[in-house]
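Hello forum,

I keep getting stuck at the same step: I have a sequence, I want structure tokens, and every attempt I make locally crashes halfway through. Rather than fight my setup again tonight, could one of you with a working pipeline run this one for me? It's a single chain of 125 residues.
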Amino acid sequence: MRLSNKNEVRFYNKRGTAEQWIKEGKYALNWTRLSCQSFKANQVRLQFFSLAYNLSNFFRRLVLPRQIKHWTLTTIRDKFIKIGARMISHSRYVIFQMAEVTVSRQWMAKVLSNIQSFRLRHNVW
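Reply #2:
Ran it on my machine without issues. Output:
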């Protein structure tokens, strides 16, 4: 490779960043686990993993508060998706009581507010 030292370092830094993204998807979503018998089934499974990875990244970049945007996908999955909650159903409404150990009430409120503003801004749903 005939690059200046500065450009060569920049090239390898970008390569390292891409490898970090691959590692993150590999460990957070187990996308290397293609255990189906046929090639087509494994192809579909990998596409689902890619969709889950992209949705998680959109969630991180567009919805999370600035203080926690640096969280890995594994942390996001554990703190936002794998949450124990109790559902209380009344005649007119449903309440989810979630453990505040994982994510504080303020951060959860900010996430829900960001989702609402994203919906309004992009006219979704």
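The radius of gyration is 19 Å. If your local run keeps crashing, start a new thread with the error log.
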